Amino acid sequence: MAKIRIEVITGERVVYAEDADIVVAPGVVGELGILPQHAPLLTALQPGELLVRKGNEEIAMAVSGGFMEVRPDKVIVLADTAERAEDIDLARAQAAKQRAEQRIEEQRDRVDLTRAEAALQRSVARLKVVEKRRKRQR
Ligand code: ATP
After folding, report:
1. Is residue 81 domain-shared with residue 118, that is, in the same domain?
2. Contact of 52 with 59, CB cutoff 8 Å
3. Do residues 128 and 99 share a domain?
4. In this predicted model, what pLDDT tens digit does every residue of 7-49 receive, in sequence order?
5. Within this chain, do residues 13 and 56 fall inside the same structural domain, yes or no?
6. Relative to the CA of 92, which ligand 1 atom is closest?
7. Which of 77, 72, 76, 78 is nearest to 36 (CA)?
8. How far is the CA of 27 from the centre of ligand 1 (A)?
9. CA-based, 20 to 30 A from 24: which of 16, 59, 106, 114?
10. Counting runs of H as helices and runs of E as strands, what totals does the chain give?
11. Domain count of the fold of the chain
């Protein structure tokens, strides 16, 4: 079966780079599933789960935003941050969520609120990926 090269890169590291069957990404206008030979496209990403399927293997990652470029030869996900499910620190994400919620409640100013909302989205995305992984392992 045809494969598609998928590279997930942040400013810090290459998180994933392999030939796979499909990638499902959290586009800003909704989930996008990319199969081999997909038409070229460029989209911004929102915080959420990035899922790669390769045979029976499913690789889940949390991304906090960035861009995905579908090229004829490969898909490049240039993420603001990306972690594979097994690398997500659950306690850290929970603490980040709590902090963000508290800051939203305090509502000091617009800038702070916007930043807190973004932090909340990042933490929720990480927690969802961890939760889904737990369910799959049950
Ligand atoms: P925190 O407040 O816990 O730092 P954050 O959402 O502000 O969370 P980011 O700025 O998105 O963190 O990410 C900073 C770096 O830390 C990135 O390299 C990201 O991959 C990593 N990171 C953030 N949260 C986690 C987590 N819960 N588990 C593992 N790595 C994380």
Report:
1. no
2. yes
3. yes
4. 999 999 999 999 999 999 999 999 999 999 999 999 999 999 9
5. yes
6. 27
7. 72
8. 20
9. 114
10. 2, 10
11. 2
Residue-wise pLDDT tens digits, 91-117: 999 999 999 999 999 887 888 899 999
Mark whether 48 and 14 lie in a shared domain: yes
Task: Tell whether 35 and 99 lie within a shared domain.
Answer: no
Nearest ligand 1 atom to the CA of 90 is: 27
pTM of the full structure: 0.95
Ligand 1 centre to CA of 82 (Å) is: 9
Dihedrals phi, psi of 122, to nearest 5 degrees:
-65, -45
Instruction: For residues 54 and 2, give the distance between their C-alpha atoms in angstroms, rounded to a whole number.
Output: 11
Ligand 1 within 6 A of 98 CB?
A: no
Same-domain status, 127 and 73: no
C-alpha of 35 from chain center = 18
**Shortest-distance Cα residue to atom 30 of ligand 1:** 88
CA of 38 to the centre of ligand 1 (A): 31
How many CA atoms lie within 13 Å of 78's alpha carbon, on the beta-carbon side?
A: 7
